[in-house]
Amino acid sequence: MFSNAYAAVMNPDVNPLRHLHKTVRFQLMTVLALMWSVVFSVWTGLVMWVGPSMLVHTLLLIGVYFTADVFRRANKQNFANHRAKYVDPADGCTKYDDLWGGA
Questions:
Q1: Are 14 and 8 in contact (CB under 8 A)?
Q2: How far apart are the first and last CA of the chain?
Q3: Neighbours of 54 (CB within 10 A)
């Protein structure tokens, strides 16, 4: 039950923001995290912790977002033959083998 509730809020493929573009979804999740930081700080009476809580939540969300983006890009690309894009099909030599521009 707890994992379903967590996924309904935090999983971008399940929550109600899933139809939005990834950047907009990230921005809205960041705003929601900041809002909940303020709500929790006011609720507990620790208003002096609003700033650090907002900073930590923002850093956490940025880290999760960029990690997910790296994983997504890695799944799309084929790294098994990554050197093939640097080979000239005409002669089979490396395209960028002459670093200093000589003939």
A1: yes
A2: 68
A3: 18
Q: Is 78 left (phi over 0), alpha (psi -120 to 50) or beta?
A: beta
**DSSP 8-class letter at 12:** T
Residue 26 CB burial class (10 angstroms; 0-12, 13-18, ≥19): buried
pTM score, whole prediction? 0.48
Which of 68, 84, 87 has its CA nearest to residue 29? Answer: 68
CB 62 within 8 A of CB 56: no
Ordered per-residue pLDDT tens for the chain, 103 residues: 777 777 777 777 777 777 888 888 888 888 888 888 888 877 787 778 788 888 888 888 888 888 787 777 766 766 566 666 777 777 777 766 566 655 5
